[in-house]
Amino acid sequence: MTWCKSAWQKAQPIYDQIVIMPFIKGMIDGTLDQSKFNFYIAQDARYLENFGRALALIAARAHRKDHVLDFIRFAEGAIVVESALHAGYLSGQDGAKKIEVSPACHHYNSYLISTAAIAPVEIAMAAVLPCFWVYKEVGDYIFEHQNKNGNPYQAWINTYSGTDFGIVVNKAILICDEIAATCTPRQRDAMTEAFLTGCQLEWMFWDSAWRLEKWPVMA
Ligand SMILES: Cc1ncc(C[n+]2csc(CCO)c2C)c(N)n1
């Protein structure tokens, strides 16, 4: 079995808990409270900037030249393409108002940047894979079960269930399998651990938006 298939099998319990989250159910039927979605989008803007930087760091550290190029393109996608989706949802709101990063977003950003900067590069690649793969699976799941009548979250759903995004995700999966095939069992286990951590952080990101998460103590 490929590394990706076995990693996904291990992540299945996390994925199963993601698709039943109230945030996801709300996007499916279109009833998700606008304030929770706005919180999510605002946090995601802070996340995407860091994610783009993490991908650029991995590009710089990749061993194969074709992987350098792939990760440069992923980084561009994170910053440019995704920002367009965000701009659509945030239009009409005060773009200059930079919201405070939530604890879950802060934690995810720190994990991505530190892993991309100093972990062995195969672990860094595994750590960012859930950002692609979980979104593809969740996007497809929502698309299949959605209420299409005036769902305010249609643009989001179309982005992550679309074929263009599918091609990018398949590329990220293929790269991890290519790298895992060159690794020792111990390195592959470390990749799996990083992959599972990324999946947990994806769950936490949606959970924090549902709770409009705040810092437990403030100045
Ligand atoms: C918390 C969070 N995780 C993953 C994504 C999805 N995503 C963001 S950038 C990118 C790759 C390049 O387009 C992908 C798949 C998101 N938006 N927010």
Automatic annotation (TrEMBL):
<feature type="domain" description="Thiaminase-2/PQQC">
    <location>
        <begin position="8"/>
        <end position="211"/>
    </location>
</feature>
<keyword id="KW-0784">Thiamine biosynthesis</keyword>
<comment type="pathway">
    <text>Cofactor biosynthesis; thiamine diphosphate biosynthesis.</text>
</comment>
<dbReference type="GO" id="GO:0005829">
    <property type="term" value="C:cytosol"/>
</dbReference>
<dbReference type="InterPro" id="IPR027574">
    <property type="entry name" value="Thiaminase_II"/>
</dbReference>
<dbReference type="GO" id="GO:0009228">
    <property type="term" value="P:thiamine biosynthetic process"/>
</dbReference>
<protein>
    <recommendedName>
        <fullName>Aminopyrimidine aminohydrolase</fullName>
        <ecNumber>3.5.99.2</ecNumber>
    </recommendedName>
</protein>
<dbReference type="InterPro" id="IPR050967">
    <property type="entry name" value="Thiamine_Salvage_TenA"/>
</dbReference>
<keyword id="KW-0378">Hydrolase</keyword>
<dbReference type="InterPro" id="IPR004305">
    <property type="entry name" value="Thiaminase-2/PQQC"/>
</dbReference>
<comment type="function">
    <text>Catalyzes an amino-pyrimidine hydrolysis reaction at the C5' of the pyrimidine moiety of thiamine compounds, a reaction that is part of a thiamine salvage pathway.</text>
</comment>
<dbReference type="InterPro" id="IPR016084">
    <property type="entry name" value="Haem_Oase-like_multi-hlx"/>
</dbReference>
<dbReference type="GO" id="GO:0009229">
    <property type="term" value="P:thiamine diphosphate biosynthetic process"/>
</dbReference>
<comment type="similarity">
    <text>Belongs to the TenA family.</text>
</comment>
<dbReference type="Pfam" id="PF03070">
    <property type="entry name" value="TENA_THI-4"/>
</dbReference>
<dbReference type="GO" id="GO:0050334">
    <property type="term" value="F:thiaminase activity"/>
</dbReference>
